[in-house]
Each structure stands twice: as structure tokens, then as C-alpha cells.
Amino acid sequence: MAAEEFDWAGLQARATEAMRHAYAPYSRYRVGAAAAVDDGRVVAGCNVENAAYGVTLCAECGLVGDLHMTGGGLLTHFVCVDGDGAVIMPCGRCRQLLWENGGAALHVMTPLGVRPMTEVLPQAFGPDDLAKGEGPV
């Protein structure tokens, strides 16, 4: 489905609902994410903080876990929201995670409108690059 025909409001509402389940006692910055999958499912995630900050789980990690727990597939449309339900950009690490699970064709709702993943993470490094490696695995 083309990005302009997609139910972005519905996906943002699902991300906002996911955000309400966030566990963010340290930063108090709740995040929710939701994405459509190529088979019609919707997956979601929220951030889950930890006193050892480096092991905090972001909303996108939860979403990708949901994707693989419910059958895998490719993400087609993605949105991430803050504690007020406003659209935010995923961080660099999460952009890489999204590339890995949606690729160049993934449509991302950004604060400036819908963008293809190729604009969200230009010149991305992915599985095809690893296939070019030499030596034993």
C-alpha cells in the first residue's frame, strides 16, 4: 500500500497506546512505536528502562521482538511517539534496527511527514554488505 493511502492516524494511535505501557521511571520519557507488517499485522513496542542505563530497551527493540515473536516478515510502515503522542524520530541505533527489518521500502512517519527509509538512514549498511565479506564464517 502506498504511503499516502495508509492509515497513519490508526498506526499513531497504536503507538500512543503502546507508549502508555512504557516503564520509564528514570528519564520519565515514555516512547511507543507501532508498525505495519507486510502480511497485514500491526506490531508495537514501548521503552523499558533499567537502573543500569546501558541495558534499557527502546520501543523499537520491543516492536522488533513482537515482529519476530508473531511470525516475522517485513515492516512496511512505522511511527514512533513521545509521552504526548507526538511523532518523534528514532535514534541512529533504532534506524539501523528498522533498516534490518523493513529495508529501503519501509515508510517512516517523521515530524516532517512520511519519508522512505532511504532518507531516514541514507547509505545504510545491511545484510547485503556482510555478504561481501571474505574469509570463513
UniProtKB/TrEMBL annotation:
<dbReference type="InterPro" id="IPR016193">
    <property type="entry name" value="Cytidine_deaminase-like"/>
</dbReference>
<dbReference type="GO" id="GO:0072527">
    <property type="term" value="P:pyrimidine-containing compound metabolic process"/>
</dbReference>
<comment type="similarity">
    <text>Belongs to the cytidine and deoxycytidylate deaminase family.</text>
</comment>
<dbReference type="InterPro" id="IPR050202">
    <property type="entry name" value="Cyt/Deoxycyt_deaminase"/>
</dbReference>
<dbReference type="GO" id="GO:0005829">
    <property type="term" value="C:cytosol"/>
</dbReference>
<dbReference type="GO" id="GO:0004126">
    <property type="term" value="F:cytidine deaminase activity"/>
</dbReference>
<protein>
    <submittedName>
        <fullName>Cytidine deaminase</fullName>
        <ecNumber>3.5.4.5</ecNumber>
    </submittedName>
</protein>
<dbReference type="GO" id="GO:0008270">
    <property type="term" value="F:zinc ion binding"/>
</dbReference>
<dbReference type="InterPro" id="IPR002125">
    <property type="entry name" value="CMP_dCMP_dom"/>
</dbReference>
<dbReference type="GO" id="GO:0055086">
    <property type="term" value="P:nucleobase-containing small molecule metabolic process"/>
</dbReference>
<keyword id="KW-0378">Hydrolase</keyword>
<dbReference type="Pfam" id="PF00383">
    <property type="entry name" value="dCMP_cyt_deam_1"/>
</dbReference>
